[in-house]
Write a structure and sequence with these properties.
This protein starts with about 40 loop residues before the first strand and ends with a helix. It is built from eight helices and two strands, in the order E-H-H-H-H-E-H-H-H-H. Helix 3 runs parallel beside helix 6 and helix 6 (about 170-185) crosses helix 7 (about 190-200). The chain is mainly α. It has one domain: Lysozyme. The radius of gyration is 17 Å and the shape is globular.
Length: about 220
Amino acid sequence: MPCVSCSSASPAERGRPASRGRRRLLLGAGALLPVGLLPRRAWAGAQQYEELADAVRGSLRSQIADAAPPVRHNLGPGERESYERWLEEMSGRLAARLPEKRNRIDLLQCLDYECLRAGLDRQMVLGLIQVESNFRKYAISDAGARGLMQVMPFWTSLIGDGDVHRLFEMRTNLRYGCVILRHYVDTEQGDLYRALGRYNGSLGQAPYPLAVHKAWKRDWSYP
């Protein structure tokens, strides 16, 4: 079994075909959404409910509730240029999945902010989203996980405001996903391989962390 250590990012890979994430409509759950935005099933695992110490739950709750604008500010000239180059490069890679450039930029700006805030490698998180939902905002897994990062609904009651429907909002989903993954990385003392297993509900099994690593390095690697 591979062991992957993590500072704010480390590898792991899985061999589940990416095409499986494009399957059938989930009937009924998206009745109030436009036809083109109906939830589609995602072929992923799911985080497992576990009791949290009051201090941990309180800390996670405060992280979820932070309402700071999800965009970096006060960048120096060199930092701004580097950031804009990254946005343009990643936007081009996302074009086949998200045709509207404004939607791509909004997603990338929010993802960059949430990854920076949580101390996660943003390229790794792009790989995770590809494996989890293939960037489908309204994806639902067979286990009931929702949205871009496939967050299980129980988290909204455990550390959030209890509004499950908000998991289909881009920023809310990225916030939950990054906070939860950071929690698992800390729980596993920096071992990203095991943290990704927890995130997927498959702790100790290789396929999911290997798939994330594969997508990360193949499709989202960036200097």
